[in-house]
Design a protein that fits this description.
seven-stranded mixed β-sheet; 27% strand; elongated; alpha/beta; Maf protein
Length: 193
C-alpha cells in the first residue's frame, strides 16, 4: 500500500502540523475536540507530551472513519525540570523567552496513531541551543510574531529560529511541531503489521 495515500485524520488545530503533513504529501482531514491538557504533577517531563498526545487521540477517536488512521500530537518545551507551555500573556511570553535565552532546552513532541491495527505512541526529543537575547530582542519578537499559540513562546520557523538558534540536535520538523520522518516510519509499520 502507498503510505501517502493512507487517509489521515489529524486531531490537531496546529497550522504547522497541517503544513508539515501536507508538504510531506499526506492525505489529511482535520477534526478536533477541546481536551483538558492537564497531566499528573509527578509525571516526568519526558513523558508529558506523549501522555497528552494519547489523551487527544482518545478524545477524537469517535471521529475516525473506516480506513483512516488518527494522528494526534503535542509538543512541550523543557528547560531543566520546568515545562514551558503556551504563554498566558505578554509578560508570560517575555518570562519564558528570557528563561530559554542563552540556554539549551528540549522540545519534546509526543505522537499517537490510532487505527484498526491498534495504537502506536512515541515521543521524539530535540535539543535546541538558543543564543542570548536582549530584552529589546525579546520585545521585538513578541510584538512582531505570534508567540501565544506556541509551547515555549517561540516558533523555530520565525525570527528567533532564524536568528537566535545556533544548533539543533534532532530534527527541525520535530521542533516545528511534528517529527514527520518518525511519523512516516510508524505509519508504514502499522500498515505492514
Amino acid at each position: 500500500m502507498n503510505i501517502l495515500k493512507q487517509p489521515i485524520l489529524l486531531a490537531s488545530k496546529s497550522p504547522r502540523r497541517k503544513q508539515l503533513l501536507t508538504e510531506a504529501g499526506f492525505n489529511i482531514r482535520i477534526a478536533t475536540k477541546e481536551v483538558d491538557e492537564s497531566y499528573p504533577e509527578d509525571m516526568p517531563a519526558t513523558e508529558v507530551a506523549q501522555y497528552l498526545a494519547e489523551k487527544k487521540a482518545m478524545a477524537c477517536a469517535d471521529f475516525l472513519r473506516d480506513g483512516e488512521l488518527l494522528l494526534a500530537a503535542d509538543s512541550i518545551v523543557v528547560l531543566g525540570n520546568e515545562i514551558f507551555e503556551k504563554p498566558e500573556d505578554r509578560d508570560d511570553a517575555f518570562r519564558i523567552i528570557r528563561s530559554l535565552s542563552g540556554n539549551k532546552h528540549q522540545v519534546i513532541t509526543g505522537v499517537c496513531l490510532l487505527g484498526k491495527g491498534g495504537k502506536v505512541a512515541f515521543s521524539e526529543v530535540a535539543n535546541v541551543y538558543m543564543d542570548t537575547l536582549s530584552d529589546e530582542e525579546i520585545a521585538y519578537y513578541i510584538d512582531n510574531y505570534q508567540p501565544y499559540d506556541k509551547a515555549g513562546a517561540y516558533a523555530i520557523q520565525e525570527w528567533i529560529g532564524l536568528c537566535k538558534i545556533n544548533k539543533i540536535e534532532g530534527t527541525f520538523q520535530n521542533v516545528m511541531g511534528l517529527p514527520v520522518a518518525a511519523v512516516y516510519r510508524a505509519i508504514r509499520e502499522m500498515l505492514q503489521s
